[in-house]
Each structure stands twice: as C-alpha cells, then as structure tokens.
Amino acid sequence: MDVTCNVFIGGTNVGEDIRRLQQGVQVIVGTPGRITDMFRRQALIPNHLKMFVLDECDEMLSQVFKEQMIDLFSYLPHTTQIVLISATMPPEILEVTTKIMRDPVSILVKKEELTLEGIKQYYVDVMKEKWKLDMLLELYDTLSISQAVIFCSKCSRVNWLTEMMIKHDFSVSPIHGYMDQKERDVVMKAFRSGSARVLITTDLLARGIDM
Question: What mean pLDDT comes out for the span 93-120?
Fold first, then answer.
C-alpha cells in the first residue's frame, strides 16, 4: 500500500514537522500536544481530516489529559469520523465522549484470556494502604530483582513513591503523563539500556510501549 505517514511528537523539530505537512502526509501518528500545536500554527488543516483515532482513550480522556484533548477536539470539523479505542470505558469517560461524538456506535470485542509465557504471576494481599511501602521494601530484601516496573494509580503517587524509594537508597526513575516527551524519552532509553533499574509509573506505560 502506497501511503505517506509521519510521526509528530514533542521534543522534535517543529520546522521539520511543518515542512513534512506541506509536502503532504496521508496518515499522522502523534501526541496530543504536538498535533494541537500543528493546528494552531495552521500547518495542519482540520478540514482535510477524514478520520481521527484516539487509542487508549480511557487514559487519554482522564483528568491528566482531559483539557488538552478537549482543546484538540475543538479543531475537528463535524465531518471528521472519530474513533475511540480502549479495553475499558469507565462511566466518567463515557460522559466525556458525549461531548465529542455524535450518535456513536459501540463495537465490543470478546475478551480473550491473557497468558504471559515464562513469567510467574502472584500477588501479595496488603490489607492497608500504609503498609504498601514496607511490603515493597521487604520484597526487595527477599527477591533478586535486576529490573522492575512499579505501577501507581496516580501521577502524584508516582512522585511520592519515587521520593520514598530514593530516601531508602534505591535508584529509581519516575515517568508519567505530566513529564514532557524529552524527559520520557531519556528515562525509557536509560531503562532499555539497563542503566536505569527501576521505573515508577502509571498504567499508561503498560499500554503499547515496547519495553
């Protein structure tokens, strides 16, 4: 298939992105911030958009990105088909979709059992929230862990746990949606190379990122 596509993300050269749009691009893949910036600069003409696809929309329409996404959607003409993709669709996210979609159709895919070959899975039943940090530290004392990803429910929790782990002499790296693209790229590069041993993040990292 002869299709011209390009990636538009923060931290890259804006002038180069504008030049590529002027040359003609059929498919755009990018982050909300950079795509909105291209709309503002009138480098990307919204009337030319036939379809807009938002992957992991439950996260992208959550409180972290909500205002940014509503700003982006304000540029889209009524003729643009909007496609929202997600494994989960909480009620609060459904409420947001009513503001950006017209007569949407829901397509449900049968949930298949997820199996992770070569990975042992278990859980620890921590009865109280305040015991979680102590349990995490105990796991590190008990197990031999070369690299790990620790998931938190909120960005504020990521920052708090990072601070606590550093106080206990652990070398950790936080990564979440409030960081700019350059910061996230540096952290991911360090983790892939092995120089960063522990990532503390939100579940957004678990979706579609090649570790």
Answer: 72
